[in-house]
Amino acid sequence: MPLPSLRIVADAHAWGVGNAFRHFPGFATELTVVEHQAITRELLQRADILVVRSSTRVDAGLLDGTPVRFVGTATVGDDHVDKDWLARQGIAFASAAGSSTGSVVEYWITVLLALHARDLIRLPDIRLGVIGVGRIGGRIADMAERLGIAVLRNDPPRARRGDGAFAPLAALLDTCDLLTLHTPLTQEPPDATRHLLDARTLAAFRGRGIVNTARGAVIDNAALTDWLDADPAHFAVLDCWEHEPGISRRLLAHPGVAIATPHIAGHSLDGKAANTRFVYEALCAFLGCPPDWETAAQLPPPVPAGHAVHCSGDVWTDLYRAAAALYPIDRDDAALRSALAGDDAGLAAAFRKQRRHYAVRRAWDVQGIRFSGADAALLDLARAIGLRPI
Question: Is 215 among the catalytic positions?
Answer without folding.
Answer: yes
